[in-house]
Each structure stands twice: as structure tokens, then as C-alpha cells.
Amino acid sequence: MKTKITIITMVALFMVAAPLLAVSAYDPDSNVVYAQVAEPFVGTSVRAMGMGGAGLGVKGYHDSFLINPANLTKSGFKFTFPSVTVIAYSPKAILESGAIEDFEEGTDDSMISGAQKFLATIKKGYGDVLTTDVSTTLTIGSFGLSLQAQERLMSYKTGADMMSTNLIAQVTTAATAGLGFRIGIVPEKISIDLGLTAQAVYKAYYEAQSASSITDMMAEDDPDIEGTFIGSTPLIAGYALPISAGINVNFPAGLTLSVAAKNFNGNYKMTTYNSVNDWAYEVLGDRLTDDADVTPSSSILEDEWTIESDWRLDAGLTWVPDIGSLVRPVLAVDVVDITSMGGLQGDDLKRAFFEQTRLGASVRLLSILDVRGGISQGYKSIGAGLDLLIFHIDAAYSIQEYGASIGDKPIDALSLRFSLLSR
Q1: How far from 316 is each of 187, 249, 259, 264, 395, CA to CA, in Å?
Q2: Any signal peptide, and if so, which residues (predicted)?
Q3: Mean of the per-residue pLDDT values for the chain?
Q4: pLDDT tens-digit profile of 56-92?
């Protein structure tokens, strides 16, 4: 009798404890494949990429307040619609691989060959493949509003073998509202700009797709793309409501000292759905397809769980000397994620400071051309911007380190941005 009571007690305790111990298979805290999905949402700034990632105190652009809320103060009227940005990673390796020529050929064998060559360009560890941003931004006086959507294709490769590659597709939407105001300290000489932004961010990402599943699909005569990516691949989706604040201290001679605290309350509340079809049913009230073959019996695989996303503190010094209207130079030095250096000493502190420092310069010529350059983690970047009436084009070539230390896994990226109306 005592044995039965003991067994029943153990079963009851397990039933109570099991939900508390349950861990999502798609949680970046427990599954290394999804580590990159925990990164805070940051819309792409081709301008900043061309300047080595620096620009915390650079004002006057439609997206300046998205980098530092204090830049919103007295920003005036700016409106962009639309703004489209595309970033292609490892462009040199892809061009040299011959994958594009195979894809253009279009035969079954060439498509498989192209997929294999493309996957072979992806290096071990974490990386990015392609990012696309679409946004519209409005500022009036010291008030700003931005609507953004971003598609990001990420990679995680466990070894040297091409077939160990995993691809994770993520889509993020964000609505950002901000407000800034100025405090005069010494008239016409020293002032303080304060800014605050609040975001509503919705993130969704697919279950990772292995290299073998991708090549197998390319090999099929009539691949069931709808059945795979709409009806049977798990989708993880959720929201966060982060808040960011910034301060600019403006000095004479065009000097600005900036500090920005970003991503407070940035944790995501996530839900795992059986498929995009079932996500649409639960969130939008209607499935995307009525095909019985792609309609699972239960919509939700896992109820709400949390992705933790830390806040960070950045600081920067910007110099914009006033030497006339024909030439407008900008010099910027930023140090990102200062709090992570707390407790470090000696060589560790020097290494962290070097890795987290961004240097950038920009020269605006005749109000139509920007020439940019920068250094981030020892890697150089270059960029340019061209303004033709209401048409604006920005380009940048940069390198980002994805490894644990500088030199482990640098990935180059080519970025292009097109927008109308305000620059």
C-alpha cells in the first residue's frame, strides 16, 4: 500500500513540475541554432554601416532618432516613402562560386548545383545571408513616427560539412514613436537634448531548415512549397514593447556628447504554432489555405514563453565643424554596450574597448553627395550617398565579425538603400 502511495505521489509531483521544467525547442537560450533570433530588432542604416557603425550623435537624417532618440529634438519635417534596403552577405564568395550562373540556367541539375555552391559559401558558426528592410518615417518638429518591416535570413553551421548548414528565416515588424525636447544651458553655446522612443515589435521565425531539406526540395520535379512553408513548418511568433532613451550634450564648435540606453523591456512573449496557416487562424482569424493536407488538427504547439533580450548602453562623441555650405564633414566615435565591460581589467578591458569602438567619418559635398568611411573591430567600411531632388540612394560595403574573437569569422556585406522624399 505504501509503495502505491509513493508511486502516486511521485507521478503527481512530476505532473506539477513538468510544465515548470519545460523548455521550448526553439528558445535561443536552450537551442544554439536560434541564438541570433534573441538579438534586439535594429532597422538597417546603410549610412551608419558606411561609417563603421558609428553615428550616435549624427543628426539631420530621417532615421537619426532610431539610432539615438535624442536626435529627434528639433529635427523638423522629414518624410520618407518608401525606403527599401537590401543587404547581401558574402557577395564576393557567392559571385566566385558560380551559383548565380547555375540558378540562371534554370534546369533541375543546375538548380541543385547552384544550391550546393551557395551553401558551400556559408562558413561554420553563425552568419547572415540576406536582409531586406522596408520602412516609412515621419518627423514633425520634435516628434517622430516610423513603421518598419524586415526580412532576415540567418545561418548556423555546425561543422565544415556543407550539409551541416541550417537556415533560419525571420520577419520582424516594428512601429516606433518618439519625442524629444531641448534644455538650454548657455544660450547659443551649450544645450541638452533629451529623447524617448517606444516600440511595438512583432517577430516571427521559421523552424530551421537543414541543407539536406533544401537540396531535396530543389531536386523535386514539383516541390510542394505551399505545403512545406505554409502548412507544415512550425512558426514561432511573438511581441515585445521595448523603450529607448537618449541624451545629447551639445557644445560649441559642433561637438556633441551622446549617451543612449536601448531596449529596456525588450523581452519577447512568444508562441509556437504548427504552421503559418495556423498562425493566421489564431492571430488573423482565418487560415491562408483550406487544403486539408496542410491543416493540422491543433494550431498551437507551445503556449506563451519568453525570449530574453538584454538592454545596452552606448556612448559617442560627434564633431560637425561648420566650415560652410559646400563641404560638411562629420567625425564620430562610438563605444557600444559599455555595461558589458564592467569588471574587466588589463588586457581584457583593452580588448573589449577595441572590439566595441566604432570610428566613422563622412563628408557631404555640394549638398548632393556623401562620401563615408569607418573602422569597426579593425575592419574597414566605405559608403556613399547620392541625393537627386526627391530620390536618394545609399550604398555601403562593410565587414562584420561573427566569431567569438576578431578574425575568427569576418563576413563582408554589400548594402543598398533607395528612398523617396527626405534623406
Answers
A1: 23, 11, 6, 19, 23
A2: 1-22
A3: 87
A4: 999 989 899 999 999 999 999 999 988 999 999 999 9
pLDDT score, position 246: 97
Tell me if residue 225 falls in helix, strand or coil: helix
Dist CA 207 CA 109 (whole Å): 27
Give bridge partners of residue 347 from the DSSP assignment. none
Is residue 200 within 8 Å of 260, Cβ to Cβ? Answer: no
Closest CA to 171 of 133, 135, 145, 225: 133
Neighbours of 316 (CB within 10 A): 25
Q: CA-to-CA distance for 134 and 417, rounded, in angstroms?
A: 10
Residue boundaries of the structural domains of the chain: 1-420
Query: What pLDDT score was predicted for residue 292?
Result: 53
Mean pLDDT of 387-394: 91
pLDDT at 186: 92
Does the pLDDT value for residue 380 go beyond 90?
yes
What would be the CATH architecture of the domain defined by 1-420? Beta Barrel (2.40)
User: How far apart are alpha carbons 315 and 21 in whole angstroms?
Assistant: 39
- Dihedral sign of CA atoms 365, 370, 371, 377 in order: positive
pLDDT over threshold 70, residue 340: yes
Rounded to whole angstroms, the Cα distance separating 12 from 18 reads 10
Give Cβ neighbours of residue 120 (< 8 Å, ≥ 6 apart): 97, 162
196 Cβ contact list (under 8 Å, min separation 6): 69, 178, 179, 180, 243, 244, 245, 246
What cell numbers appear for 145 in the block? Answer: 513616427
> Which residue type, as a one-letter code, is found at position 104?
E
Residue 16's pLDDT band, with cuts at 50, 70 and 90, is very low
DSSP SS3 for 5: helix
- Distance, in Å, from the CA atom of 392 to the CA atom of 414, rounded to the nearest integer, reads 17
Mean pLDDT value of segment 174-197: 95
Best-predicted range by mean pLDDT (86-100, 136-150, 218-232): 136-150
- Cβ–Cβ under 8 Å, residues 394 and 383: yes
The torsion region of residue 347 among left (phi > 0), alpha (psi -120 to 50) and beta comes to: alpha
241, 201 contact by CB (below 8 A):
yes
Which residues lie across from 300 on neighbouring strands? 273
Q: How far is residue 37's CA from residue 80's CA, in Å, rounded to a whole number? A: 28
Contact, 172 vs 236, CB < 8 A? no
